[in-house]
Task: inverse folding
């Protein structure tokens, strides 16, 4: 069996930056274990498998794997898959079936190898739990207790399909100094795959409003350069503390700078009578390589 694949850099306009993604095309013949093994072989934060959709009116179905687990939803694989499907089908919108639900992504072509995709979240973020043990969080992140917190934001667990522990820190300097303590990790961050999204506001940076780092040892990732599913969860916390009763707010978030893989993620939220009614994620992606998987007879 031979399968074509593409390698993309996502949440960036520039090759060799952003978050890497493998996209395996026409993957309908693969078993679950084979998809997981291929994702482990690529050893990227995520690998996407494009399948025929269950409903004819949809563009494709997608399954998403880290090197260790399958995910029901992830942002940078959705953006990357949408860009690939938009380029291949020469359309401005694609309908993608994911385990979390149906996603409609708007696509804008930049050139024959790149473009931008934006999509509304198929599941709005919900609060799962509060995080109250600040001393344990500071110890797990290798920072001082008084460096936790940013503006009005308080630590909490949110999910828009995947659970994330959202931890605000004082400023970008604190964010850059994080040194994770694995001995404290799973006990301090017990939900889901123990994934943590540490973020801060960046008023001194002209090109973005927020900065973040994501650590997911439970997914076999370590640190991830650009995490749309975490940004989607963050929309829930941003909405809770927003002073918008009815209206829309847009943010630009940077991630991956500390890893040398800078990502730019756009975030949108809309509220009606103080209730979150819409969340959106977007970003650019560029194809950097293509090849063939040779899986034998």
Result:
């Amino acid at each position: 069996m031979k399968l074509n694949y593409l390698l993309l850099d996502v949440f960036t306009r520039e090759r060799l930056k952003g978050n890497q993604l493998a996209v395996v095309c026409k993957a309908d013949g693969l078993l679950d274990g084979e998809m997981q093994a291929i994702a482990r072989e690529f050893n990227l934060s995520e690998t996407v498998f494009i399948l025929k959709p269950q409903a004819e009116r949809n563009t494709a179905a997608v399954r998403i794997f880290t090197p260790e687990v399958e995910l029901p939803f992830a942002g940078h694989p959705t953006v990357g898959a949408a860009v690939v499907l938009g380029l291949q089908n020469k359309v401005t919108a694609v309908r993608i079936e994911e385990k979390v639900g149906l996603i409609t992504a708007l696509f804008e072509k930049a050139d024959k190898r790149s473009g931008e995709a934006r999509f509304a979240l198929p599941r709005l973020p919900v609060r799962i739990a509060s995080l109250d043990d600040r001393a344990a969080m500071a110890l797990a992140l290798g920072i001082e207790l008084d460096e936790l917190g940013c503006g009005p934001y308080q630590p909490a667990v949110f999910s828009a399909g995947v659970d994330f522990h959202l931890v605000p820190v004082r400023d970008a300097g604190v964010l850059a100094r994080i040194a994770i303590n694995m001995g404290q990790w799973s006990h301090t961050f017990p939900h889901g795959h123990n994934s943590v999204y540490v973020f801060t506001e960046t008023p001194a940076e002209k090109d973005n409003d927020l900065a973040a780092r994501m650590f997911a040892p439970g997914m076999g990732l370590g640190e991830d350069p650009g995490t749309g599913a975490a940004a989607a969860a963050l929309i829930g916390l941003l909405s809770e503390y927003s002073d918008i009763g009815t209206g829309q707010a847009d943010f630009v978030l940077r991630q991956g700078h500390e890893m040398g893989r800078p990502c730019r993620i756009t975030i949108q939220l809309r509220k009606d009578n103080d209730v979150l009614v819409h969340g959106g994620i977007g970003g650019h992606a560029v194809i950097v390589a293509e090849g063939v998987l040779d899986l034998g007879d």
Q: What stands out?
A: The chain has six helices and 17 strands. Residues 75-89 form the longest helix (15 residues). The first strand starts at residue 2 and ends at 10.
